[in-house]
């Protein structure tokens, strides 16, 4: 499982010694730390051993294989050397299971979920060859992503980050949707297909985007803060309820409405979205996970392992009702999952991540995703989970966030 806890990512190896320095220089979340390039490492005087450790851990994190990180780092081998080991050696030296070996050796895709655009990192990962340290393409790929997709995160005086530069635009362009693309979001959606040869009809499709007035007064409660190392979980202090409009008062908000924090399909979707945190940061988008049932142990298991953003509790299930046009979208296990090929395919895809999961809590209420513009801008995008495990396509999400940023920039320019 690729945890977003910095402590889990750093582990007990050589990176632990420079952990305070990493935090001091604002490398304080896993998605950003994984993008550290050679220039950034040299600025921190990171040793070759520590560079190798970061490379290994980033690769394992992509494939949800962090349970082997300490052992692999302690072996003294760099990533290309590890990738050239045989299946027998991986099993004998690290006790790696057969399925995990296949995932480790698959350099084309991180555990079945597209973490980066195919035009950048995935194509370069296929080029890994040779056991020498100087020929480590995964390391070069990380550097290339910084220069091609994410800006070099060098630091200025006062230990603050230099603002994202034009290279982030290339990152968003890699996800750019083409002309003629039909959005899967509710703004232009197609009805779900009948199940069991037409004998079972799917839940009705809602045709209209929810008006802002239907959600801005919803009462929510923050259960966790945005993840920072050593941050106290808010579930212990029980923060008072607040109006949902406060979530997007100053910045665009992405709200991921989850059926269950323990559901493997929900965890996989949350993990994929949060892995793009550097891109969302550059677009001025805050990330929120919304749950409709408060089970403290489930919140603690979910945050920050699968999601490092804020988690809010919607006691009245109002966001979930808004997804269904005013009423909850629900489906039964038998008709909605067992007799639904698409839901079973979604489960299989999420299962391939190797993430842990459970069956605690209510699981029949459908979730989805909202993108709400800053202030009174309104709901720019809405996606509903028609089949269990449906995800809002990432290119659509980033396209809408990019459009909102451009609109806000133009509006501010006019005011000036």
Secondary structure topology:
Blueprint: H1 6-10, H2 19-24, H3 30-33, H4 38-43, H5 48-62, H6 69-74, H7 79-83, H8 87-94, H9 98-105, H10 118-125, H11 137-148, E1 155-156, E2 160-161, H12 167-174, E3 219-224, E4 242-243, E5 252-257, H13 264-274, H14 277-282, E6 285-291, H15 296-302, E7 310-313, H16 318-323, H17 333-338, H18 341-351, E8 368-372, E9 379-384, H19 394-415
Parallel strand pairs: 5-6, 6-7
Antiparallel strand pairs: 1-2, 3-4, 3-7, 5-8, 8-9
Helix pairs in contact: 10-11, 11-12, 13-18
Please give a structural write-up.
Belongs to the peroxiredoxin-like PRXL2 family. PRXL2A subfamily. Its main location: cytoplasm. Keywords: Cytoplasm, Redox-active center. The chain is an alpha+beta fold. It is 38% helix and 10% strand. A 7-stranded mixed beta sheet has the order 4-3-7-6-5-8-9. Strands 1-2 form a two-stranded antiparallel sheet. A hairpin with a 3-residue loop joins strand 1 and strand 2. It is globular.
Please write the string of helix (H) and strand (E) elements.
HHHHHHHHHHHEEHEEEHHEHEHHHEEH
Calculate Rg over CA atoms: 22 Å
Main beta-sheet strand count, sense and barrel state: 7 strands, mixed
**Poorly predicted regions:** 114-166
Tally of strands: 9
Number of helices: 19
Beta-strand percent range: 5-15%
Placed side by side, the strands forming the largest sheet appear as 4-3-7-6-5-8-9
Estimate the mean pLDDT confidence.
83
Structural class call reads alpha+beta
Distance between the ends: 48 Å
The 3D shape can be described as: globular
Helical residue percent band: 25-40%
């Amino acid at each position: 499982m690729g945890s977003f806890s910095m402590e889990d990512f750093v582990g007990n190896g050589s990176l632990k010694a420079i952990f305070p320095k990493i935090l001091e220089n604002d490398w304080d979340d896993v998605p950003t730390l994984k993008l550290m390039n050679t220039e950034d490492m040299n600025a921190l005087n990171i040793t070759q051993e520590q560079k190798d450790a970061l490379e290994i851990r980033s690769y394992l994190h992509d494939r949800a294989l962090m349970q082997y990180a300490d052992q692999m780092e302690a072996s003294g081998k760099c990533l290309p050397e590890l990738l050239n080991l045989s299946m027998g050696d991986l099993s004998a030296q690290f006790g790696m299971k057969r399925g995990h070996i296949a995932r480790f050796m698959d350099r084309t895709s991180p555990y079945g979920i597209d973490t980066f655009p195919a035009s950048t990192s995935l194509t370069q990962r296929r080029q890994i060859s040779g056991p020498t340290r100087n020929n480590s393409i995964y390391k070069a790929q990380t550097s290339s992503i910084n220069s091609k997709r994410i800006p070099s995160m060098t630091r200025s005086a006062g230990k603050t980050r230099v603002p994202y530069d034009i290279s982030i635009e290339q990152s968003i362009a890699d996800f750019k949707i083409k002309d003629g693309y039909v959005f899967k979001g509710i703004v232009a959606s197609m009805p779900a297909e009948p199940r069991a040869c037409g004998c079972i009809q799917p839940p009705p499709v809602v045709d209209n985007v929810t008006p802002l007035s239907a959600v801005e007064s919803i009462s929510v409660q923050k259960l966790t803060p945005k993840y920072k190392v050593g941050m106290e979980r808010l579930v212990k202090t029980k923060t008072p309820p607040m109006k949902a409009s406060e979530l997007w008062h100053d910045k665009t908000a992405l709200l991921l409405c989850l059926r269950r924090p323990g559901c493997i399909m929900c965890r996989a979707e949350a993990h994929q979205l949060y892995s793009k945190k550097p891109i969302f940061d550059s677009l001025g988008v805050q990330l929120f996970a919304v749950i409709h049932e408060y089970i403290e142990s489930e919140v603690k298991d979910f945050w920050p392992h699968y999601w490092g953003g804020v988690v809010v509790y919607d006691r009245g299930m109002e966001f979930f009702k808004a997804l269904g046009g005013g009423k909850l979208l629900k489906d039964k296990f038998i008709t909605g999952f067992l007799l639904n090929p698409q839901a079973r395919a979604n489960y299989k895809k999420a299962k391939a991540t190797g993430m842990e999961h459970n069956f605690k809590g209510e699981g029949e209420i459908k979730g989805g995703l909202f993108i709400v513009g800053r202030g009174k801008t309104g709901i720019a995008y809405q996606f509903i989970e028609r089949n269990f495990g449906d995800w809002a396509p990432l290119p659509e999400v980033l396209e809408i966030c990019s459009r909102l940023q451009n609109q806000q920039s133009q509006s501010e320019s006019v005011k000036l």
